[in-house]
Structure formats: C-alpha cells, structure tokens
Amino acid sequence: MSSLVTTANVPVEAAGLASAFFLSGALFSLSHITLPSLRSSPAPQYTKLFSPISSYGTRFVPFATLFSSLSLCYSAYRSGKSQLYHAGFLVFGIFPWSLLVMHPIQQALEAYGGYKDDAWRMNKDAVEEADTFSKSWMLGNYVRSGFPLLGGIWAIQSLLAGRGGL
Description:
This protein is mostly helical. It has 6 helices and no strands. It has helices spanning 2-38, 43-79, 82-92, 94-113, 117-122, 125-162. It is a multi-pass membrane protein.
C-alpha cells in the first residue's frame, strides 16, 4: 500500500517542484534580464515601462506561489514527509518578503512612472532616486527568487532521501 501512496503523490510532487523552479526562474530573469534591459533607457522611460511589468507580476506571482506551496504541503500531508512542509513554507516565504521589503520599493518606482516630463525636469534628484530604487528592487528580487529555489532544492533532497537517494 505504501508504494501506491507514493506513486499517487508523484504528480503532485512534480507539480510543486516544477512550479517552484519555474517561479524562481521567472523572478530571477526579471532582475537579471528584464530590468537591466529597461534601465538602458533614461529613467523617465524605464519607470513608465516598469509599471505594466510590475502589475502583471502582482497578478501572476501570488497564484504561482500558492500553487507551488500548497502542492508541496499537500504532498507532505499525503506522504508524511515533514521536510516537504518546510519546502512549501520556504516557497511561501515570498509573501512576507514581498509585502515587507519589495512593496514599498515597487510603489516608489510606480510613482516615478507616473511623473510627467515637467516633473522630471523640476526634480533633478528624481533620476538618481529612481535609479537607486530600481537597483534596490533588482537586489530584493534576487533574494525573492531564492525562496522558491531553496524550497525546490529542499523538496528534491527530501524526496530523494525518502526514496533511497540517488
């Protein structure tokens, strides 16, 4: 019976792992590819382009995070492997990090995106501030991409240990 339960968990485990690694890669690529490409433009332009990307991420990331976290936790519940709970909660760590660290930075960048051309000319420090906020957002997003990456690695380690290792 135990092999049947383990076999029945495989699709849920695979969904949790795949979504965790996909989420990590999507978040990492924003900091490593997308935002640096945007930053090659002047601040008034890249802050305007940041807003739609940010709003899409705000709609997509919470659902992907919940799916991954719940898949790993359900897998832990079905298999009795408490290490999978840890992996699921590690993926879920995106939420507090995003709310406490990333949200204020994101709001500031979106506010700069709403500036008119006159406001940029009147406030000379705005360009430097926008640059600082975008660098902070990139670094914070690197950290945020680490939560699902570490959760996925923890889950793989747990699953391999439960099945006799490599």
